[in-house]
Amino acid sequence: MIGIIIQARMGSHRLPNKMMKSFYNGKGILECLVDRLKNDLSEIPIVIATTHKKEDDEITLLAERMNIECYRGSEDDVLRRFILCAERYSFTKLIRICADNPFIDISSLKVLINELKIRKVDYASYRLSNSKPVILSHYGFWAEGISLAALKKVQRLTDDKYYHEHVTNFIYMNESEFDLFWMTVPKFIEDSTIRLTVDTLADFQMAKSIYKYFITLKQPTIGDLLSYINKNEDYLIKMKELINLNQK
């Protein structure tokens, strides 16, 4: 079975409490993200994976209010958190979404889910023309698909804390060990200067402003967002500055 696991916690070093800060209509970015996923992917089970820390009680309460599951696990060993979460809910394949990305592209997500269903692969996602996985980019539009078996293999192959904190890095940094399927990011997106992942207060403030337009669209696309942002030079200047300051 395929399920969506949203990685979320309150303890961000660069922007504490960013999951619950008022983002749109009194809702935080995590709630806005879950709303969109529930509306467009109602047939796919959704679980929030957070930590045992007291501050993340708020995330558990939010999940209860939104009638979705919440799994609590290790703060530092995120790989183990994902494995145990997937096992708890009987996910043999999972879609990993970072809650930092309220503008996740639903159309691309549906394609990813379908590819993960029909292909016997360890990992599926999008990458740039230079082979850089989008999870390492600043765009904020895409998720990752992973098999539970692949995550368990990573757990067996390495004890490195870096790979246990960053769930999928070992997979795409050791491609010979896994069966990967890549889709290509459209060139018009890659050529753009766009940053919509939310890591800092400056990211948050800009994303909050753009979201007011985004949420009014019936079926928003990346193209719609690019068109809107390209008409606002202030956004473009700020995004370019933030990209330079926050290279992944």
From TrEMBL:
It comes from the Bacteria. InterPro entries: Cytidylyl_trans, Nucleotide-diphossugar_trans. Gene3D superfamilies: Spore Coat Polysaccharide Biosynthesis Protein SpsA, Chain A. This is Glycosyl transferase family 2. It comes from Carboxylicivirga linearis.
